[in-house]
Amino acid sequence: MTGSDFRERVYELVAQIPEGRVMTYGDIAVLSGHAHAARIVGGIAHFGPTELPWHRVVNRLGGLAAGYYGGKLGHQLALEAEGFEIKDFQIVDFQERRWLPSYH
DNA sequence: CGAGTGACCGCAA
DNA sequence: ATTGCGGCCACTC
């Protein structure tokens, strides 16, 4: 176990999000072992490596992140570039786009 | 080394 | 329906 297991778990989950899919901060938090740490996921995202697809991480409403690099607009553009349809800073058919990790 | 902050979520008035 | 508050962990100053 390295010092921060939670953080690495978040990295793993985010890195495994396939293109065209999204995960919520809450889901990542639960899957990381801390259901009430959705906020921490955001904190990690802020200081986390930019090579990870953080733009595929949204809130439980399928909404965009306010503090994303470039703001909501940048987040929206990043998602639209992946084929997402955004309306009112929210992902259309977000529930269908929602992805949960499968151990295969 | 101590305290504050944060890209959130859920519940209570 | 909206508004406000507490909670958790990691990172920065």
How are the secondary structure elements laid out?
Elements (H helix, E strand, L loop, with lengths): L4 H11 L7 E2 H8 L5 H10 L9 E2 L12 H11 L4 E2 L2 E2 L2 H4 L7
Parallel strand pairs: 1-2
Antiparallel strand pairs: 3-4
Helix pairs in contact: 1-2, 2-3
This protein binds a DNA duplex (13 and 13 nucleotides) through helix 2, helix 3 and strand 2.
Sum this structure up briefly.
The protein has 104 residues and is mostly helical. Helix content is 42%, strand content 8%. The chain is built from five helices and four strands, in the order αβααβαββα.
Question: What attributes does this structure have?
Answer:
42% helix, DNA-binding, 5 helices, globular, 104 residues, mainly alpha, 4 strands
Description:
With 104 residues, the chain is mainly alpha-helical. It starts with a helix and ends in a 7-residue tail after the last helix. The chain has five helices and four strands; from the N terminus they run H-E-H-H-E-H-E-E-H. 42% of the residues lie in helices and 8% in strands. The protein is globular. Strand 3 (86-87) and strand 4 form a beta hairpin. The protein binds a DNA duplex (13 and 13 nucleotides) through residues 4, 6-7, 24-26, 29, 34-47, 54, 57-60, 64-69, 75.
